[in-house]
Amino acid sequence: MPLVYEQLRAQARRYMRKERSGVTMQSTALVHETYLKLVHANDVDWHDRSHFFALAAQIMRRILIDAARARTAAKRGGGAARIDHSSAVDFDQIPSADSDASSAALCALDDALESLARIDPRRARVIELRFFGGLSVEETAEVLRVSPQTVMRDWRLARAWIAREMADE
């Protein structure tokens, strides 16, 4: 854990910077909760460092989505505002730190990502690894065992698909 702790904290800080200002979870708490889930993942066949961080990204995503869904359910009786996007998703703006709809945006993104995963798992994985995992194009290509060009193509197409899916909601 000491070898990866600082990188996990940096990853968590990136997530938390994008969260709205009223979020009570701190990056350290996110890392610790992720660690507890990783410790109990006994049946994982670890391949390499990138695989570890990809799994950590999935776990952090689930923790943040669960927290966002809980906030959305508690606020206004569970009615989430619809998010309208007319072009490709700008991941630097979801969730926006100043937006009241940040929890709803994160939930809408997760729903769209789940829908994409059902029809194109690799493109959904690219979004997850790059946005939630903070992996570079090259690291994502290594984890998925594809070329960096394929990652970039999947990234562009998945962003457009998710934007359309979120606009249809």
Blueprint of the fold:
Elements (H helix, E strand, L loop, with lengths): L4 H14 L8 H13 L9 H26 L27 H18 L1 H12 L4 H8 L3 H21 L1
Please tell me about this protein's structure.
- This protein has seven helices and no strands.
- With 169 residues, the protein is mainly α.
- The chain has one domain (5-168).
- α4 runs antiparallel to α5, α4 (102-119) crosses α7 (148-168) and α5 (121-132) crosses α7 (148-168).
- Residues 78-87 and 95-100 have low confidence and may be disordered.
Q: Which key phrases capture this entry?
A:
169 residues, single chain, mainly alpha, 66% helix, 7 helices
Number of domains: 1
Share of residues in strands: under 5%
Give the overall shape.
globular
The overall average pLDDT, rounded, is: 76
The structural class is mainly alpha
Please give the radius of gyration in angstroms: 16 Å
Low-confidence stretches: 78-87, 95-100
Q: What about the largest sheet?
A: none
Enumerate how many helices there are, as a single number: 7
Report the helical percentage.
55-70%
Report the strand count: 0
Cα-to-Cα separation, first versus last residue: 41 Å
